[in-house]
Amino acid sequence: MENIIEAGDLKKTYKLPGEEINALKGISFNVKHSEFVAIMGPSGAGKTTLLNLIGGLDNLSSGGLKVLGNEFSRLKEKDLSRIRRKSIGFVFQDFLLIPSLTALENVEMAMYLAKTDVNRENAVNILKRVGLGHRLKHLPYELSGGEMQRVAIARALAISPKIILADEPTGNLDTKNSQNIFDLLKQLNEEEGLTVMMATHNTKLGYQSKRAILMRDGNIEEDQKITGD
């Protein structure tokens, strides 16, 4: 099975007035197509930095990072933007829905921003896939936290991505909704072959994935395959 992500001696340094912060200190790993990888570790471990680099939201300082066959260190911002729009779906802790738009309109907006055809029927079907066929016309404030995150996942799916990057997607949810959102991501991985990388503090959820990468202080402490449920 081919690698969809390849990181070699990947480093990221943030230069601030009077100091440098080494967020990633030279990490190496590969992710194969259709893997589900949980990135775990305490705050400051480098989880979000890693996802931002893989998603083309930030630039690496040194090392190699190849995503979907593209060497990110060699790409200009317009090329990174194109890859983000066409191939990578993002899910964040804070949902980031547009409050004045309905669930359906939020998904359609994602299509518009990705410069793909805004297809209402497709948007409806995506919301049905995430269990929100009965919430199409609801505004975000009319939805529960779990439902808002489902809309956020539907929005990520609107571009038919090859990779889903989820940064603490259950961080603002209770235990039941956290498990439901994880189960949805796992279903998308298993049934549709989406590659999922999920950063999480929740070790109970993380160890339900197929693979766990444990990070601390910008390094990978452990990279383990997980068998069973």
Could you report the average pLDDT, rounded to the nearest whole number?
93
- Record field, number of beta strands: 10
Structural class: alpha/beta
> What composes the largest sheet?
6 strands, mixed
Please give a structural write-up.
By secondary structure, the protein is α/β, with parallel strands linked by helices. It has helices spanning 47-54, 77-87, 103-113, 120-129, 145-157, 175-192, 203-206, and strands at 3-16, 19-32, 36-40, 62-67, 70-71, 88-92, 163-167, 195-200, 211-216, 219-225. A six-stranded mixed sheet has the order 6-7-8-3-9-10, with helices on both faces. A four-stranded antiparallel sheet has the order 2-1-4-5, with helices on one face. The two termini are 22 Å apart. The relative contact order is 0.20.
